[in-house]
Amino acid sequence: MTRRWIVGGCVAVAAALIVIWVVTSSSSESGYRDTVVGIAHDGLSAVRTTDLLVTADQDDRLVSTYRSTAIDDAETGLSDAIAQLDGADRPGPAANALYERLAPLLRTGMAGVTEASDAMSGGTADLGAARAKLRAAGDGLAEFVRSTR
Questions:
Q1: Which of 39, 67, 107, 112 has its CA 20 to 30 A from that of 139?
Q2: Are the C-beta atoms of residues 78 and 106 closer than 8 Å to each other?
Q3: Residue 122 and residue 81: Cα distance in Å, rounded?
């Protein structure tokens, strides 16, 4: 009889540990997914805003001081998004897959914002190439958000 109680107790403890692991594992994966969707939203906002700035600047409808401030905000937003993504703990393989999908999109967006800033400030960057990066990153980020929610 005592042996049954010991075996039963061990089985109950093992079952409880499995349930705890499943609950905390799925909630941390879910929490990471929520975090990366928020990061993707931030990156998408910065990329799309910069694309609109490029259009307004080409149409000569943009004040240079506003352009400078808005570009700085976009660069800061993307830089913060990349840092937040890189600094977040990835709780498992699904989280690693999300990271691998999102990181290149944010980096492409940052390259597009940086090149657009340089081109609009009279630098040597090609505005057409910058805009292509902005649009590719924006489309990719929008799809990431849609498919990951």
A1: 67
A2: yes
A3: 27
SS3 of 86, please? helix
C-alpha angle 12-15-20 in degrees, rounded to nearest 5: 125
Place of tokens 């691998």: 100
Closest CA to 134 of 40, 42, 37, 46: 46
Q: Exposure of 3 by Cβ count < 10 A (0-12 exposed, 13-18 middle, 19+ buried)?
A: exposed
Give the total residue count for the chain. Answer: 149
Band (pLDDT 50/70/90 cuts) for residue 18 is very low
Q: Are 43 and 81 in contact (CB under 8 A)?
A: yes
Q: Which of 26-40, 50-64, 96-110, 135-149 shows the lowest per-residue confidence on average (mean pLDDT)?
A: 26-40
Mean pLDDT of the 128-146 span: 97
Q: What is the mean pLDDT of the chain?
A: 85
Q: Tokens for 50, please give them.
A: 């910069």
Task: Provide the token pair at 99.
Answer: 């990271």
Amino acid at 41: H
- Taking CA atoms, 84 is separated from 14, 66, 102, 115, 136, in Å, by 36, 27, 12, 22, 22
